[in-house]
Amino acid sequence: EFDLVLGASQGDIVFGDFIWSRDFENAVVIVNPGENPAEYTWPAKINFYDVNGNLLQSPLSLGGRSAMLLVKNLSILP
Length: 78
Fold this sequence. Notes:
Elements: E1 14-15, E2 20-23, E3 27-32, E4 38-40, E5 60-62, E6 66-71
Antiparallel strand pairs: 1-2, 2-3, 3-6, 4-5
């Protein structure tokens, strides 16, 4: 369990074909509500990190019925 400051929402939930996402100041939350794995892709100029501070590569495969936090600002990590 984490207590991270995501910052203010940067818009509404985006309902993609397989992945739903919501952008915040310091992170993006992605959700795969389906049964099967799905990919989430972002532009190469954007860096996202996992909650351990590891750089993530696009596209990212997200398992079915799962969610992930894509960190933009490493200073929010403990």
